[in-house]
């Protein structure tokens, strides 16, 4: 195809070419950053380890295109980077406005609740105004993300990096399923309603409860501190506008959030514990006293606190007081009689003092436990495995569960106790089914359970049909997102052997995991896989939960020493002791393309009740693995894999057209008709229309 050039001899690239070159540049940058991070000395010190470190040679895989030095591309790249920064500031501005409106809404509701003696906060004109503002701002943000490729890129790159940081802190990655469940918990706690989270093993119920309780505490503290700071600021700036207030809110809000983030990262033990929820592990032996007051016997035999000088002064004072009262009788005695009497009185005072300040034997000592402390101090409390506690003991919680902050609750063995603001109650429990029964659990009394907001929390969503390439809505594959986050480095880049094949394998792995989860929960009949004749399936003990998925990924270690099939066998399937579970999961792994015969595997289908499978049974030859060369995907590749292709640009943006115009005055003299012919040959898209119109308006040939 003939290249077209402007009058200065520059090749005029299509927008698709420039976008492709930009992606290549990001991959090259990611590769250089990867090599730089690997080659730098640990802690910057000269040591045996640093001196004799050696590194694998990484070949340059990204094609070098001579046209990428083209001035039009350089200006396009500068434009994109500046536009990302501009749109990023716009996004942050909208988000700050949303935070400001939520801050005011929460304040309005608290005032309303306190006015109604901590009853239902209700709806009023002030709260409705804030709710409407939040909706408008969220719609404005969504419109921006749907209209600007750079805004979309900024927003989801930031989400990717946030996910990576979250994962590094061993917190739940906030895919939509997790975020929605956590928000339900927070909303209930803010309304003073206790929460009961139920789900299957390995779904992360306890982790969700812990994180939601932590967020609840921090949000309440930030809200309270911001209210004080804003009032204090306004008292010194009575002529300030709301625009000034919003900007000051941004400053205070960012400072407070950073403060608590630093505590969780670098705080001392006392600071961290003050934010964490109180925690009780449920068991059948747990009594209601264990939840509120622990009674213990203690041996008391030491002298009461106080210095000996103080005690001596007490005796002397009492002794002289006694002598003054009996002065007349003492004067009638001889000196010897007085001396003997004084000695006896002094000894009596001494014995009485020792007796009154000493105790010997045992006494009952009461120690406040987690739920009582949470009520009194205004803190969240989590009762893990709530449904393992005997129902007759749970009844003691009734009055607390139906009261709100600011009310007084009656606690058996303690009496009336004021519930402080900040108190919240979260219980967790395993969800039994006809196929899976968790030993030691009980079905909660319906009347008791009705006091809770019950939330079922299980495994994150994942499509189980189709390949990675033909996913219409990639963002709905939340389990695949979790896997990708696990593999990304701190900059959002991913380094894999043979990425095209490996990514497809990882996607099929996420599908396999979801199938085992659906079967374990008894929900496979709701999925399209029922068409394959897989009815009446069950897994009793084993499932590829998030915990087991991470074990497999860690064992695989990005394909360093073994492929994904071998890692799946070594870290999960080989450890399954229930034969039917193992045989079914192994057969499904084969169905999803693992353990291929061409790679030395042979998995034969076994019937129900047959013994477990050994490695020797399924291996036809010694295992030998050759790792492909590592290739690098940029953060942009990663967000396209996780969140979809985003907003596609079909036209040159007006701002970029203006940059091109300012660059080359000769562009005005390009033949418009000739450019139209070129456009047809090169399959230029809509952006050519802008150039044609521009040329016509500036004296080009008609």
UniProtKB/TrEMBL annotation:
Q: Which organism is it from?
A: Asaccharospora irregularis DSM 2635
**What InterPro entries does the database record attribute to this sequence?**
P-loop_NTPase (IPR027417)
Q: What is this protein called?
A: AAA domain (Dynein-related subfamily)
Would you say which domain of life the source belongs to?
Bacteria
């Amino acid at each position: 195809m003939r290249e077209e050039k402007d009058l200065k001899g520059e090749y005029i690239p299509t927008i698709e070419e420039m976008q492709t070159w930009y992606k290549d540049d990001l991959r090259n940058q990611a590769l250089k950053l990867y090599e730089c991070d690997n080659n730098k000395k640990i802690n910057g010190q000269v040591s045996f380890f640093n001196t004799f470190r050696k590194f694998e040679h990484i070949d340059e895989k990204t094609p070098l295109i001579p046209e990428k030095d083209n001035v039009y591309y350089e200006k396009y790249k500068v434009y994109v980077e500046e536009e990302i920064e501009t749109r990023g500031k716009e996004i942050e501005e909208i988000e700050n406005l949303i935070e400001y409106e939520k801050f005011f809404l929460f304040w309005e509701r608290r005032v309303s609740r306190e006015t109604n003696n901590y009853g239902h906060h209700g709806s009023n004109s002030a709260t409705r105004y804030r709710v409407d503002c939040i909706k408008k701002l969220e719609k404005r943000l969504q419109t921006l993300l749907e209209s600007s490729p750079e805004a979309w890129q900024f927003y989801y790159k930031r989400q990717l990096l946030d996910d990576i940081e979250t994962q590094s802190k061993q917190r739940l990655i906030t895919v939509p399923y997790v975020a929605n469940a956590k928000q339900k918990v927070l909303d209930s706690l803010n309304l003073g309603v206790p929460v009961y989270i139920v789900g299957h093993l390995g779904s992360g119920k306890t982790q969700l409860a812990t994180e939601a309780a932590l967020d609840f505490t921090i949000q309440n503290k930030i809200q309270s501190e911001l209210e004080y700071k804003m009032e204090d600021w306004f008292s010194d700036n009575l002529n300030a506008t709301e625009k000034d207030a919003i900007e000051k809110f941004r400053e205070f809000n960012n400072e407070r959030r950073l403060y608590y983030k630093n505590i969780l990262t670098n705080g001392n033990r006392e600071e961290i514990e003050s934010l964490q929820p109180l925690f009780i592990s449920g068991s059948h032996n747990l009594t209601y006293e264990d939840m509120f007051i622990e009674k213990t016997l203690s041996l008391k035999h030491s002298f009461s606190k106080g210095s000996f000088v103080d005690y001596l002064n007490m005796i002397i004072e009492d002794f002289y007081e006694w002598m003054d009262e009996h002065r007349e009788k003492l004067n009638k005695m001889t000196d010897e009689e007085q001396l003997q009497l004084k000695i006896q009185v002094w000894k009596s005072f001494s014995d009485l003092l020792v007796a009154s300040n000493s105790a010997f034997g045992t006494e009952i000592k009461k120690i406040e436990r987690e739920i009582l402390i949470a009520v009194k101090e205004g803190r969240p409390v989590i009762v893990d495995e709530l449904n393992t506690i005997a129902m007759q003991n749970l009844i003691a919680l009734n009055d607390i569960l139906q009261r709100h902050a600011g009310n007084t609750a009656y606690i058996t063995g303690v009496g009336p106790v004021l519930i402080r603001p900040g108190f919240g109650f979260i219980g967790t429990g395993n969800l039994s089914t006809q196929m899976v029964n968790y030993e030691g659990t009980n079905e909660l009394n319906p009347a008791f359970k009705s006091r809770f907001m019950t939330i079922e929390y299980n495994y994150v969503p994942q499509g189980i049909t189709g390949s990675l390439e033909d996913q219409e809505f990639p963002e709905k594959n939340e389990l695949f997102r979790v896997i990708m986050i696990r593999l990304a480095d701190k900059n959002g880049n991913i380094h894999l052997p043979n990425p095209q094949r490996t990514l497809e394998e990882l996607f099929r792995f996420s599908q396999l995991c979801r199938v085992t989860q659906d079967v374990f929960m008894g929900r496979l009949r709701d999925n399209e896989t029922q068409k394959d004749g897989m009815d009446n399936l069950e897994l009793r003990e084993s499932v590829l939960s998030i915990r087991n998925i991470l074990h497999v990924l860690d064992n695989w270690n990005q394909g360093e020493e073994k492929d994904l099939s071998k890692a799946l066998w070594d870290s999960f399937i080989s450890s399954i002791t229930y034969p039917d579970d193992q045989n079914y999961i192994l057969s499904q792994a084969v169905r999803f393309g693992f353990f291929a015969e061409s790679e030395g595997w042979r998995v034969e289908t076994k019937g129900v009740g047959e013994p477990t499978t050994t490695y020797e049974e399924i291996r036809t030859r010694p295992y030998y693995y050759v790792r492909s060369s590592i290739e690098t995907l940029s953060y942009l590749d990663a967000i396209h894999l996780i969140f979809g292709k985003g907003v596609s640009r079909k036209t040159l943006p007006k701002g970029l057209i203006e940059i091109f115009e300012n660059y080359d005055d000769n562009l005005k003299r390009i033949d418009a008709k000739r450019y139209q012919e070129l456009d047809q040959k090169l399959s230029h898209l809509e952006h050519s229309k802008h150039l044609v119109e521009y040329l016509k308006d500036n004296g080009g040939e008609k």
